Amino acid sequence: MENKINYSRQTQKIIDRIESRRDADDPPRLLLHSCCAPCSSHCMEYLREHFLLTVFYYNPNITIPGEYQKRLAEEKRLIAAYNRQVEEQDFTGMHSTARARRIEILEAPYDPDNWFRAVAGLEGCPEGGERCTVCFEMRLEKAAQAAAEGGFDYFTTTLTISPLKDAQRLNFIGEQMAKKYGTAWLPSDFKKKDGYKRSIELSREFGLYRQNYCGCVFSQNPV
Ligand code: SF4
């Protein structure tokens, strides 16, 4: 049986290296592709201690425009709440400390038509199948491109927090895209070390909208 890589351990190793070397006033810049507020909640809480974070919102797979806007609004609401904690230095109930930093957001244009073209012929694939690979590639390619253009030190994605998503595949794609665009992928498996559990707690605490399907119309109504 194929050995699985422990990407969570790899994240921690990189963070340990950063913390042992860096100038406290000059943390590395990380572009964090985010699919939605609930999935990003734990990732942001964890990463804002070690990186200057910019959330990258590129999700053309959320094919219903109203749903896309609803998830984006929740993402912005959560970032604003986290930033208020930094301004007020009030981290009550959080795992964050005074080292936490403000978070920015970068929105890419919403282009569901391109997404439908990319997955044409794969509409009937079950969730987790080939359609999802194409969907991951499309979103991580755009994130890698934005990370390279923006001079970020790393990029990664919140998608590895989902128990329904294959972290091995996501990390493989992330590494390929990093090579293609000459940037650095931050390996991750955010669900580990109770990350997924923490995202549920934070969703409850902030009253976040938690959708009950992944994003595309095919995950909502399998064909
Ligand atoms: S189920 Fe989710 S990951 Fe898979 S294609 Fe649809 S939106 Fe993308």
Structural features, described:
With 223 residues, the chain is of the alpha/beta class. The protein has one domain: 3-Layer(aba) Sandwich (Rossmann fold), CATH 3.40.50.620. The protein is built from 8 helices and 4 strands. Strands 3-2-1-4 form a 4-stranded parallel sheet, sandwiched between helices. Helix 3 links the parallel strand 2 and strand 3. Helix 2 runs parallel beside helix 3 and helix 5 packs parallel to helix 6. The longest helix is centred in the middle third of the chain and has 24 residues. It starts with 6 loop residues before the first helix and ends with a helix. The model has no long low-confidence stretch (mean pLDDT 95). The structure holds iron/sulfur cluster (SF4). The site of iron/sulfur cluster (SF4) has 10 residues, from helix 5 and helix 8.
Question: What is the gist of this entry?
Answer:
The protein is of the alpha/beta class. The protein contains 8 helices and 4 strands. The site of iron/sulfur cluster has 10 residues, from helix 5 and helix 8.
List keywords for this structure.
about 220 residues; alpha/beta; Rossmann fold; 4-stranded parallel beta sheet; binds iron/sulfur cluster
Blueprint of the fold:
Blueprint lengths: L6 H15 L7 E5 L3 H11 L4 E6 L7 H24 L14 E5 L4 H7 L11 H20 L4 E4 L9 H15 L13 H11 L11 H4 L3
Parallel strand pairs: 1-2, 1-4, 2-3
The site of iron/sulfur cluster has 10 residues, from helix 5 and helix 8.
